[in-house]
Amino acid sequence: MSITKKVTALAVGLGLVALSACGSSDGDDQGGGGSGTVTLVSHNSWSASKDVIAAFEKQSGYQVRVLEDGDAGQAVNKAILTKDNPQGDVFFGVDNTLLSRALDNGLFQPYEAKDSGKVLPEFRVDEDKHRVTPVDTGDVCVNYDKAWFEEHRLTPPQTFDDLIEPEYKDLLVTENASTSSPGLGFLLGTAAKYGDEGWPDYWKKLKANGVKVVDGWEQAYNEEFSGSAGGKKAKADRPLVVSYASSPPAEVIYADPKPDTAPTGVAEGTCFRQVEYAGLLSNAKNPEGGKALLDFLISKTFQDDMPLNMFVYPVREGARVPEEFTTSGPRAKDPQTMDPAKIADNRDQWVKSWTSLVLK
Predict the structure, then answer these.
(1) Strand 240-244 vs strand 313-314: parallel, antiparallel, or unpaired?
(2) How many CA atoms, within 13 angstroms, populate the side-chain half-sphere of residue 264?
(3) CA distance 129 to 109
(4) What is the residue-averaged pLDDT of the chain?
(5) pTM to 2 decimals?
(6) E strand or H helix at 186, and its extent?
(7) Cα distance between residue 323 and residue 115, in whole Å
(8) Are 46 and 19 in contact (CB under 8 A)?
(9) What's the rounded mean pLDDT across residues 293-318?
(10) DSSP per-residue letters across 321-332
(11) How far apart are CA 33 and CA 87, in angstroms?
């Protein structure tokens, strides 16, 4: 989901402006957070409704300051490098593909958020130490441009196997697995599908079939993918992109005029499930404000608001899922998954091998 995040707010490329940074009420916001300011560090897909943030600020007494720091992979790496003098109090956007890196490097301090018992059991992790709080979930999947495939009288791919077929040569763009969360999710999806020994051979075939690799999601989706609103403006020429199962609803909601159906589709046989977490940063300057913000991120108010801002699914039981998600971007029925321990044991070596195979 990140669920991405990220899934990912697809609206970044469709004209939605993310929440701007707020100064503290007492003017003391030096170093990422004075007593009246709580600072959230995130990837550049963070977004929330202004009235929802305003309600939290009124209830808690803290002004929210947001620092967006690139794609999820880049943001996590920077947070680790600055953990002794963090930029903020809470980090949001580390997902299951990168979680062990954050935990092993001591990025977070323990805190059990209020209402954590209302998070659906399948999304809970680290329950003995409570260093992270699940916030959202989503599926990383290949998206396709419906109009392009109709025009070329070609059936869109639906599986990983399809993507290496000759008819799809030079059509796919994906993100760098070493710098991008969806790029890494796509790599892990292939590892889950083909196994430890089989995924490198698959990527050799994908490379031979003309896959294009760019640094991050925003470039891939909004500049290279012909099916997105941004891609159309950029005259993009790749009708396949690694994005999210919740991408098509954004193309409906933020289009003017709105189409009856989404202009993009999802290849359900290419999906990998992500979960995004938030945590109280070690050495946070305002830990009490950070705790209040973590409580808020899994409150029903925020969880209900989140889907149509960041285009991810909530993790709280009973949270509202928008109708647009069920009609234009339903969750994958059988996504690839991987045990977090296996990701931790293999991720860095797999990324190193992937880089040698695909980028050199």
Answers:
(1) unpaired
(2) 35
(3) 9
(4) 89
(5) 0.81
(6) helix 181-208
(7) 25
(8) yes
(9) 96
(10) --HHHHHH-PPP
(11) 8
